[in-house]
Design goal:
The chain is an alpha+beta fold. The protein has one domain. 33% of the residues lie in helices and 28% in strands. Strands 1, 2, 3, 4, 5, 6, 7, 8 and 9 form a nine-stranded mixed β-sheet that branches. Strand 1 and strand 2 form a beta hairpin.
C-alpha cells in the first residue's frame, strides 16, 4: 500500500513550485521567439534550495498572484474543483484525479513530499507574460530529486497552468539542458568551443531565438551517443 501511495504522489508531481530567495537575476534580454516576433526574457536562479510545501489548507487561502503561488496551490489542492481551477481552461486542460489521490494529499507528510525550486524563466511576448519553472521533485519512495518543468501564463493578474499553449512545447528544452550551462549559453561568457558553436546556432542578429534553441535541442537528441549530447544534457534528467 505504501508503494501505491508514493506512486500516486509522484503522479501528482506533473504540477508544482514556490516563492522568494532568488540568487542571480537577469532582466530585459531581448529574445527572438518565433521568426520576427520579439519577446523579453528574464532568468532567475534560486541561490539556495527552496522547498514548496502543501501550505494552503483550502482554496480560499490559495493565491495565484505569482507563478510560485500557483504551484503552491497545485500541491495543496485536495479536491478536483480546486485542482481544475489552477489551469487556464479549467477542467478542459486539467487531469482527472481519483479520490485516493486527494485522500493522500490530505494525509501526506508535507516535510517529506515537496518541491525544490531551481530556476524560473519568464518571457514577455507582445503584452502576454509566460513562465517556465524548473523544480526538483522530492517524495517518499524517491531515492533522489527528480527534475521537472511547468509552463504557465498570466491572465487577468493571475497565473495559470497552460499545457496546451504555444509556449508549452518548449518545456522539454529546460528539462534537457544542464541548468548552469543553459544559463551560460543565454548570458555568457561564451568561452569554450562548445559555447561558441551553440551561440552561433541559437542567436540570430544578436537576439536569442527560442525556436532555434528548440532546434538545437532536437539536433542533440538525434545523436544521444555524441560528445555534445553528453556535454549539454542535464544528468539529473537522463
Amino acid at each position: 500500500m505504501e508503494f501505491k501511495k508514493n506512486t500516486y504522489f509522484i503522479l501528482l508531481f506533473t504540477l508544482i513550485f514556490s516563492t522568494q530567495g532568488f540568487g542571480q537575476m537577469y532582466d530585459g534580454i531581448t529574445m527572438n521567439a518565433f521568426k520576427e516576433e520579439i519577446v523579453d526574457i528574464s532568468f532567475a536562479r534560486y541561490s539556495n534550495p527552496y522547498k514548496i510545501k502543501a501550505s494552503y489548507k483550502n482554496e480560499r487561502k490559495a493565491k495565484l498572484n505569482t507563478p510560485e503561488e500557483l504551484m503552491t496551490s497545485l500541491i495543496s489542492a485536495n479536491n478536483q474543483k480546486w485542482f481544475d481551477n489552477n489551469f487556464l481552461f479549467g477542467e478542459l486542460e486539467s487531469i482527472k484525479k481519483g479520490e485516493n489521490h486527494f485522500d493522500f494529499i490530505k494525509k501526506m507528510d508535507v516535510e517529506s513530499n515537496y518541491f525544490n525550486l531551481i530556476y524560473k524563466v519568464t518571457v514577455m511576448k507582445d503584452t502576454t507574460q509566460y513562465a517556465f519553472l524548473k523544480y526538483g521533485i522530492n517524495a517518499q519512495g524517491l531515492q533522489e530529486e527528480v527534475p521537472a518543468v511547468k509552463s504557465m501564463k498570466k491572465k487577468g493578474g493571475k497565473w495559470y497552468l497552460t499545457p496546451s499553449s504555444d509556449f508549452a512545447k518548449f518545456s522539454l528544452i529546460f528539462i534537457f539542458f544542464d541548468d548552469e550551462k543553459l544559463e551560460k549559453l543565454l548570458f555568457g561568457p561564451w568561452d569554450s568551443p562548445e559555447f561558441v558553436e551553440a551561440k552561433s546556432k541559437v542567436f540570430e542578429n544578436d537576439l536569442f531565438n527560442l525556436g532555434k534553441l528548440n532546434d538545437f535541442c532536437i539536433e542533440l537528441n538525434r545523436n544521444p551517443d555524441s560528445i555534445l549530447y553528453n556535454f549539454w544534457k542535464d544528468n539529473k534528467s537522463f
